[in-house]
What does this fold into?
Amino acid sequence: MQSYDRLIELSRERSMLGSVWEALGWDTRTGMPRGAVAQRAEQEAFLTRLNHRMATDPEIGRLLEMTVANPNASSLSEVQKRNLFLIRRGYDLLTKVPEEFAAELTRQISIAYDAWLKAKAERDWKIFQPHLEKTFQMQVHYSDLLMGYLGLSDPYDVHLDGFERGMTSDYYAKMFKEIQSGIVPMVERYAEASKDVQTDFLKRRVDKSTQLRIVESLAEFLGYDIKSEHAMGKLGETEHPFSTGRYDDVRIALHYYEDDFFMPVLIFLHEAGHALYGMNLNREWNYEPVGQSESNGIHESQSRFMENMVGRSPHFIRYFLPLLNKLVQNKFSDMSTEDFTRALNVVRPSPIRGGSDEVTYSLHLIIRFEIEKAMFANRISVSEIPEIWKEKYDRYLGVTVQDDSMGALQDMHWASGMFGYFPCYALGNVFSAQLAEAMERRIPDWKQQIEAGDSKAVMAWMKQNVHQKGSLYDALDLIKNVTGKEASAKPYLRYLKRKYAGLYGG
Ligand SMILES: [Zn+2]
It folds into this structure.
């Protein structure tokens, strides 16, 4: 069908523009000369305009009508129908947002982001407040533009849907309630049980070049190829680690800490979870809408699985510790697998979300979700956030927030206009545990395989069941198809209970 083929051609061009942007973004964050900032900003503004023009090209609207009206439309395959759905949706959403508003929002976000950096450095919410007020007003306006089309009545849901299609605040409220009632009894018990666990050996100095060799070994362990002449992976260095790319070019940038060598290990495992997903996408659908990875929850399930369910497990440590000792002349030969695993899993309520343990992590997300929800419901104003933040940290985690840089200013999400992203991390946790249970039914000894240094079966399972599906299904449907059950927080809670009982008893 000609109109369909042309639609795919236009989509591929836009997706290719996206991958050019990713390559440029890598350069911006890992190697661009400092004097090139303004020139790069101009290049990026140009790409933004080009992308908006391509995405809202009236030809797409005409082609969509023609395709649907074609008598052969019903004989399109499942994949083709999904492509049409994704193209229709993207087109409808973007054409409802005027170009001037989109440009103004981008500008506002870069100003607000700058103010946030300053406010955080000076520990002063007041510097950020007027900028966040303006950003937030624009986000409310954005909701107004799209609520009717999406058939939603809560403006917050528009943003939640933007990061994870189909998700609403009602869904998340129920999920968080279940998670909260499961973890609250664990927080106190395991904070107490792990309070004397020795962790200072994790600060033993490991120089940067050795850390790089450790990470290279782990890349090999996961099959993330950075060495062969066909390598599609690459390691780089940056201030704030990230991964980027898709298909034949998927890269990871890390930061090394000589007095905290395990941090880059966990970050690498996390980013490799994302990267392998991007690399393992179905090549038959390259650059088509269905051949992308759209769901943030599924993406985070891959990274959280690798970081926590693998990286912080005794099985992985049993594989990792001898490897580590070989590379650091037995610097850790006095530590046992048990010492190591316990140190990586102490429960310590903290005011900071990043790097917090698996038991308390969800509480950080619940606090942010509740605040965002109340903001969109007009129940709290931007000026009240710092006080409400402190009160919630005291109530949920029993910690005192000393100043706003450790409180409401700690995350970059709101400064970047990302209202509604935090719950995706929780989805990632929930999905990761449910996927792992399903995998375990097929590969009962997967943990022993990891322990033996073999990740092939695990990666093949993820590739076949998750990565290769791209955007063929919405997240909840994918989870149901793969696991045979509705998405649920129960496997996640089961996983945490089993893991911590194994480490500390109870
Ligand atoms: Zn991630």
